[in-house]
Amino acid sequence: MDQLKRQAAARALEDVRDGMQLGLGTGSTAKHFIELLGERVRAGLKVIGVPTSEATRADAERCGVPLTTLDEIDHLDLTVDGADEIDPALNLIKGGGGALLREKIVAAASDRMIVIADDTKWVPTLGRFPLPVEVIPFGLGATRRAIEKAFASCGVSGQMAVRKAKDGHVFVTDGGHWILDAQLGRIEDPARLAEALSAIPGVVEHGLFIGLASSAVLAGGGGIRVVERRKP
Q: Rounded to a whole number, what is the largest CA-CA distance in the chain?
């Protein structure tokens, strides 16, 4: 599986050109991309990156990839990131690693977003992977009730749990927030659910990435498959 992730990362690297401003994703597949990008930088490629998490920042610094922020540059040419699920419309569930807020800010600031993954992440309908919802700890009970109402209005339901870290304490994002993971099974209308969740006070962000991915690079036993998002 790790080899497949690296193959997808290597294919995405073919789209990187000298002088590009890059969004650098978070997670195991994105880490392969950063390592391969670092090799190209050491060979003379001139790029600059914006990391989507503190973990990615550390990886990029270790690999020698120059970094900046979205305060210092006005847009990104390309973001390369992984995903927890990808549907045929290239809608995504992201946030399994907890970096969904920064990942979405960076993706939205980019001209293009390439999603890299092994082909097990390709699904006919989103929802098998638990949907992360990043929330403010204050007023959590009220926020949970509002989320449940949003689920009901969109025809989905499932158990929600506050994410825990490996040490058993509440997982805290880089932004200082908590994450609720919702086991929804199937999300028939992800765009509608995304809109409903975004309207809730207390919800900082959610893991539904709608209309942000330009293409997906999927690595499987049969090789690499590239899927482009259909224009509306």
A: 53
